[in-house]
Every structure is written in C-alpha cells, then in structure tokens.
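User: Fold this, then the next.

Assistant: Folding the first:
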Amino acid sequence: QVQVVESGGGLVQAGGSLTLSCTASGLNFGDYVMAWFRQASGKEREVVSSIARSDGKYYAEFVEGRFTISRHNAKNTVYLEMNSLKPEDTAIYYCAAGGQWSFRPESYDYWGQGTQVTVSS
C-alpha cells in the first residue's frame, strides 16, 4: 500500500520561511517524479514545483527564486523550502508522486493528505 505523508505546515509571518517534508512509502521512490501542488480556498489546485528522477526541477513563476525543491531518495523524502513567504502563498500544500514529467494534477498517481500553510500579513 502506497502512503504519502506531508509535514511541516503551519502559521508564519509574511517574509518568513517554512520547509515542508513529504515521505512516501510502498513505492520505489527513485522511480517517481515528485511534485508539490497547492490549493487555496475557492481556487483550483496548481503545481508549485516538481523534481524529476534525474533531479531536474521546475518552479511555477509565482515561486521562482523563493522556493527550493529537493529530494533525498535514501530517505524516500522530498522537501520544499519556502522563503520570502507572502499572504497569497496561503493554501493547502499537497505532495504527489507520478510516473512521468507533468504539471497537471491528473497525471499524478499518489497523493498526500495535504498540510496547511498560512502566511499572515
């Protein structure tokens, strides 16, 4: 049984930093593209960042230069380091695993339950 679990969300002031972690079990972690998505209240789910099996990275324009994605395959873990946070970053952040390079939620096979990130002004 595949299980994906996020952690690290919380409340932070604008301009602050937060690091999310995601650990996946029940799969060959190194074989999967990993991605972070977020969904704000009343909005569609959108990709934040993704990381390839080869360590290639993608960042959405709205986080470029502020967030850093990384993976530690030996720990079956992907991270999202978030800096210079803005109130508009407030959302539930989801970790996902998929078999191909994609920025679409429907392309991902396994999802975590989400972790809330709230940025105060």
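Now the next one, as you asked:
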Amino acid sequence: QVQLEESGGGLVQPGGSLRLSCSASGIIVSNNPMGWYRQPPGKQRDLVAGIARDGRPVYTDSAKGRFTVFRDSAKNTVYLQMNSLQPEDSAVYYCSIGDTWGQGTLVTISS
C-alpha cells in the first residue's frame, strides 16, 4: 500500500521560507515521478512543481526562482523548499505519486 505524508507547513511572514517534506512508504520515490500541488481556500488544486524519474525538476511559473524540489533517496522523501513566500502562496500543499495523494499540509503566509 502506497502512502504519502506531508509535513513542514505553518505560518510564516511574507518573505519567509518553509521546507515541505513528502515522506513515502510502499513506493520508491526515486523510481517514480512526483508532484507538489497546492489548493488555496475555495480554489482548485494546481501543480506547483514536480520531479521526474531521472531527478529533473519541473516548475510552474508561480514556483520558478523561488521554489526548489529535490529528493533524498536514503530517506525516501521528496522536499519542496519555498523561499520569498507571499500571501498568495497560502494554500494546502499536497504531494502526489501516481494516483496516491497525501493528506496535505497547510501553509499560511501572513504578517
């Protein structure tokens, strides 16, 4: 059974940083493409960034230059480092591999 668990969300001020983690069990993250998504309140869930099977990162325009996605094969975990956060980045962030989703972690950017 594949399970994903996000962590690392929280409340930070504008301009701050957070590192989200997506810990996987039942699947090897380095053998699979993976995506980070976010869903602001009342809005749809959209892709933010991803990492291909070969480790190549993919970023949407909203993430380019501010977010970095990377994985630690030893920990079977994928990370999303988010810098220069702004209020519009506030959302529940999810990781996904295939058709499996984590429960999400809430990110709130506010002064």
